[in-house]
Write a structure and sequence with these properties.
The structure is a single chain. The protein has helices at 22-44, 47-50, 53-60, 118-136, 158-164, 192-202, 208-213, 249-254, 259-275, 323-326, 328-341, 354-375, 385-402, and strands spanning 66-68, 90-94, 98-102, 108-113, 149-153, 181-185, 222-225, 245-248, 285-290, 302-304, 306-311. The protein is an alpha+beta fold and 414 residues long. The strands form three sheets. A five-stranded antiparallel beta sheet has the order 2-3-4-6-5. A hairpin with a 3-residue loop joins β2 and β3. The protein contains 13 helices and eleven strands. It has a domain at 259-290 and 316-402. Residues 1-35 are annotated as: Disordered. This is DUF3669 domain-containing protein. InterPro entries: Znf_prot_DUF3669. Pfam families: DUF3669.
Length: 414
Amino acid sequence: MMRTKAAGGSPDALGQGDPLDMEATDQLSQQLDEERNDRLQQNLGAAMKQIAHSKLVSRLLSLDMMVKSVPSPTQSHTPSPTPSGIIGFRSIGFGQCGLIFERPGRKQVVKVARPGFHEALLIDYEAHQAVVAAFTAQKDNPECRVPQVFRHISKNEQEWWQDNKSLFPKQHSSFPLPSSALTSERILPLPKVIRDLFINEFCPEHRRQDAFSSPLNRDCLARVYLGRRRLPNQPAPMNFALRNYNLCLDQMVQLDLPVLFYAIAIGEALAIIHWKANVDGYDIEYVLGSEAEPTSEETSRKRRATRIWVLDFNLCTRWEEKVGWKQPQALIEQLVLAFFENDPYYPLPFPEDEFDEQLWLAFKDEYLRKSKEILAEKDERLHSLPKKFIKACESRERENLMKGLGHGHRDHKG
């Protein structure tokens, strides 16, 4: 059985001579994924057979499809047997400043800083805390969700690294341990039924079998690129992977996904990040993933199947509220820079397509509505800033289009 400490504690350190069993770790990760998918299939019942695969995926990604909360095996009185061997950390993704690891069966992930990014990870932690607090403070639950963040771990925190260093996969010189780390809530991957459709629809035919069998594709989160369409007749990428999958607007439309609702949800989220958390949102991500596992108290209620999650705050800047009236122009310029330098999650003003214009208007209207609600209780000198931000975004896009720079031009990232 896998070795664990009491709930809430850190993992057991390996004893002298105890081998880390990465095969058992991968096996348990696969087993837990299969069990989650089995529970979803039981929930959907006849719908799995009665409607087309694409229609089922459209419903699952509608964000309003409710499924019965079923406890995970770790909450059950008769959990499935776990593989023998020492269960360690398994890499499930990467970001600019670090690698992300799960320990199968745990509800946390560990983000470990790359060399030279220790300070960025502390910035990530502090901004993440501010955004979680801002979302939690909302009277009505926002449509997007932010994973809980638990702690920042210094590279010099000997006790934590003594307990955990040996649980990581074989290290190499480009990624030495110990390092800075932070722990946060695991965002569960999209269900297999969705992953399979992505592969069937968007993976080159000669690569599909490899994509279906690759264990890396279990770790599927889909970036919601409302501001990008693929070029017409653009060939499928040769290196197809579902980790951090870039789901472009035309693909979402092809799958009949509720992109107007996505635009509204992201507009609401950005307003909370700007005016409640006082964070600029530079380089954050909006991804589709599964809803969080229910707690034992929540298993009697229905819950959503999927959710848009907001994550990655390592390049964000926070400001004091007084900056809003002492240096309003500088603040607006920073927010506009962060908006356009981000990956293309946001709809853009002045698109060529009428449908894309509806997305921008939906995003804009919800951003302004939520901003007004948040700022109603704050200094009135802040009240005009959300409209100034939107107008500045429109002005910048208009000028860049007139210069022939194209939609969503980014000055720094290209």
